[in-house]
């Protein structure tokens, strides 16, 4: 079961359903999906993934990404780290269902979580990390307004080659609310 917390045109964000652990296990064990993630070298069983999701849902700021038309879960997005004193947050996104790659779902999910972070959580800076070989992700992040702010040089070794870990961020002043601003304006009439 999914609940429409934040709704976009293509997808919506919902609390994560732990019962999706089998789908997630399939996704995280697919090397094509996992190569850009931290868990690439891990072997993840259904029991491990279910345990992970149970812990993950305890954080109130992690969401399932659900296709609006079919109500199928396609991945997740959220804030694994938030600094409430300094109003900063780190986001992570994972599109496990490869049928949805390159079709704008990741871009929209990031816009939705940015809107939530800036408009509801009142964050000032939202940042992320990405490996330099993950060109589609970098393109997506730049499209929604993230800027490169630094690199940890040669931080990742894969297939005998070293790659930088790129740090990107966006400030509240650089993002214009699309979804939540409209909701507030409708209520204000």
Automatic annotation (TrEMBL):
InterPro entries attached to this UniProt entry: Acyl_CoA_acyltransferase, GNAT_dom
Keywords: Transferase
Domain N-acetyltransferase: 11-173
Keyword match DNA damage: no
Keyword Transferase: yes
Gene3D superfamilies, alphabetized: 3.40.630.30
Coiled coil ranges: none
Pfam families: Acetyltransf_3
Gene Ontology MF: a single term: acyltransferase activity, transferring groups other than amino-acyl groups
Superkingdom of the source species: Bacteria
Protein name (record): Protein N-acetyltransferase, RimJ/RimL family
Organism of this sequence: Paramaledivibacter caminithermalis (strain DSM 15212 / CIP 107654 / DViRD3) (Clostridium caminithermale)
Source organism phylogeny: Bacteria, Bacillati, Bacillota, Clostridia, Peptostreptococcales
């Amino acid at each position: 079961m999914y609940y429409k917390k934040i709704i976009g045109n293509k997808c919506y964000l919902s609390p994560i359903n732990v019962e999706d652990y089998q789908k997630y296990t399939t996704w995280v064990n697919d090397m094509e999906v996992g190569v850009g993630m931290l868990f690439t070298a891990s072997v993840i069983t259904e029991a491990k993934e279910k345990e992970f999701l149970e812990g993950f849902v305890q954080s109130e700021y992690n969401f399932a990404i659900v296709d609006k038309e079919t109500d199928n879960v396609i991945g997740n997005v959220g804030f694994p780290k938030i600094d409430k004193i300094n109003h900063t947050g780190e986001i992570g996104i994972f599109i496990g269902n490869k049928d949805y790659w390159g079709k704008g779902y990741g871009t929209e999910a990031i816009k939705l979580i940015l809107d939530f972070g800036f408009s509801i959580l009142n964050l000032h800076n939202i940042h992320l990390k990405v490996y330099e070989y993950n060109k589609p992700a970098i393109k997506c992040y730049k499209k929604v307004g993230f800027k490169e702010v630094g690199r940890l040089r040669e931080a990742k070794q894969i297939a005998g080659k070293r790659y930088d870990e790129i740090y990107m961020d966006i400030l509240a002043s650089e993002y214009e609310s699309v979804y939540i601003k409209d909701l507030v304006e409708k209520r204000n009439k």
